[in-house]
Amino acid sequence: MNTRRFTMMPGPRPLPLLGNSWRFALRQKPWVTFSLDQTLWYLKNLAGSCGAAKVAKLFGHPDLVFPFCADETARIYRREDTMPHRAVAPCLKHYKQVLRKEFFGEEPGLIGVHGMPWSKFRSKVTKALAAPEAARAAVPTLHYVAEDFICRMDNILDENGELPKDFLTELYKWALESVGAWALGTRLGCLQDNDNEAQDIIRSIHGFFHSVPELELSAPLWRLYPTTAYKTYVNALDSFRSLCLKRLTDKGICAHIAQSHGRKVATILALDLLLVGVDTTAAAAASTIYLLARNERVQKRLQEELDANLITDKEMTCKDLDQLPYLRACIKEALRIKPVILGNGRCIQSDAIISGYEVPKGSHIVFPHYILSNDERYFPSPQEYVPERWVREDFDRINGYTEEFDYERESLHNAEDMKSDYCRTKSIWQKQKEVGIHPFASLPFGFGRRMCIGKRFAEAELQLLLAKMFHKYSVRWRYGELTYSVTPTYIPNEPLQFTLLRRQ
Question: pTM for the complete prediction?
């Protein structure tokens, strides 16, 4: 195979001195940090089928390479060593290693670091976090957080049964309360209106996540002077650090870490879990609820599974969750269409051949999972929400239908629409079955040693909340299609004004 030089890889042409950073500075589409999904589609068109594109000469960043091929993604992931390097978040690295060095010292945590320091810290916390039993043991605690959130939803509905415009903020509260419960072993009070400390936490969460794109994705002006976003970012991190120190108890995952490796390691782990486990889980919940609300067929099928396996007002256990494969498929399909992170990355430690190009050591490889998981090559009719893609059973068996559509299941005026939807989605399922699912085409939690370490906890949180919500309510969406922005998670722009109809 003939290889081509790195300079031949397609990509926007950098200018002398200014490189490509000027594109993001001018904020002209598709070079807008909040619209990186559009940037990725633009780069895919440059790369062509199974190719790659690059964005070179960005201030403060190595050259970025985007391979738009699942096979290439698999090859790169599988060749990484025992200490895979992710591109460091410069501002977070500065906070941990310079600004608050006296606290972190030789314990940098899991986020924003790589190499031996990351590997040593990870070895201290992996057993407590990655073991399946750890997440299963947390289910009873997470059940009560979900139960309290469902009660809160009841209280904030308006007279038309509609949730408020700031429902995404409510999901942030639920996610933060959940992380506090399983990681710190305490309830933070985020689901109460009269807890001032909890409200301060929520404000810090919002300030932190909205400052990240400007600090980590745009020109690093904070290195020259303390910008407003930089001050917000640092204040938020200081607040989270104080929270973790203050609220660490003798329960929860971090308590086990404290017993084995000391209170400081436990506090740093708790901080990292807050940074990666709140906005991501809230965004995943928002997108799954939205897609279910827009797809009556899928929602009804999910409710049939919930009705057959759950008892109202009974505490849910991990055994209950094991009986809900369609619910898990609904979440996987939502994360395929709307992954909370558009891509993961690795900083290669040696020269490599990627998509036929010679890529130099130190380049940052960005795996654009959002593009691959919405690519017709891997997922026929990619914008169609079809959870059956992920279930091994036959489509008719999953949906409880025979070849003759059961008209008695629905009122007559809905029957034809239901039959049409059923036939269309069955056709998509058949095409997916023929294509198969490439194991590297949809990786919402990443892959390898640096995949999301809290994956099982996030899945348990989502399953419990969605099971309770859709068991109690039918959810409707009465507005137009949502648009999304990168902040840095992929979240809706418009208010999440879902309508909840109490089920009998």
Answer: 0.92
